[in-house]
Amino acid sequence: MNTVDVAAAIPIPTPVPIPLETPAQPPSRLHTFISWTLGPLYIAAGIGIFMGVHHYMPMSPFMTYIVMNAFVIVMTQVLELVFPYEKSWRKPDDQFFNEIASTFLSATVGHKIGKTIAFACFGWFLTWSRANGGGAAAPWWPTSIPFALQVLLAFVIWEFGLYWNHRFMHGWAWRYHSLHHKLRRLSWINSGYGHPMNFLLTSLFSYTALSFSGAPVDVLIFTGYLSLSINFLSHANIDVKMGYLNLFLNTPELHRWHHVRDPESAGRNYGTQLIIWDLVFGTYYLPKDRLPSRDLGDDTPAPSSYLAQLLAPFRWVQSMSWKPVIPDQRMAFLPARAPERRASPE
Ligand SMILES: [Zn+2]
Ligand SMILES: [Zn+2]
Description:
InterPro entries: Fatty_acid_hydroxylase (IPR006694), Sterol_Desaturase_Related (IPR050307). The protein has helices at about 5-10, 30-55, 60-80, 95-120, 125-130, 145-170, 175, 195-215, 215-230, 250-260, 275-280, 305-310, 315-320, 340-345. The protein has about 350 residues and is mostly helical. The protein has one domain (about 30-345). One zinc ion (ZN) binds near residues 180 and 181.
């Protein structure tokens, strides 16, 4: 069977664009005021939920994760309803079922397997730490600094794994990540939209980095809690202005640039929760003079059913058509400006 026959045998609809409801008028002063105050309040509320649940609802770490997630989801959903960035993104599109299935099934299963492999292969220290009450650290871990700083340090190391995994996804592993870039709208519900292999590799990279950090288990548990408070932020369809927080966190303002079809922002803002490694490796992108388009997603066709999306990366011919539409993304392992330098005459 030749390639044309195989491609023709798979029903692949072209994605339907969402009609946008972007307001033509500039926002009112009240709207602007709320935009600028809501971002810091969201972060404060996320950390407040984390502190409140930890202090007043003592539970196992697993149940704490579940309860914290529920609080943050309710907060984010309410804000998306009353103060959206793009009104049309509130309406579910034809991928709504897949978004839910992916966020609650693909992401959970993928992360779980990746985390298990990472800890089984590299987490010998964590096993030892747990056996010693969870607070034992590797000799190189700075136990003398305050606990909160240890949590932040672990967060930065964790993000190092997340950052390089995302760059890897935009290169050699694009076929597992491309589904995430077919989103036509952004909402907290689709922050976990993607192929299970995407999430497996994400956890494999990031928990391997954490395993080698030598941080004690107690620190890692709190790092996980801290991450939950901003877990859904980057995709949140809330009209927030994050100001200086854009230099620390992967905010909606930054992550929208990662999803638009724009050659300038292609291969930028790879951060998942923090943005520090984009600043370090030169992939940070947040122009002051323009806003990202609200027309998201690449136009390459994708299967529409959940099962077909699970199988797609393993079908050779189809997955080969899932290349990044913007070539810069394929240069993921080179420095951000490398293609231009290579092209210029010496
Ligand atoms: Zn990406
Ligand atoms: Zn995304």
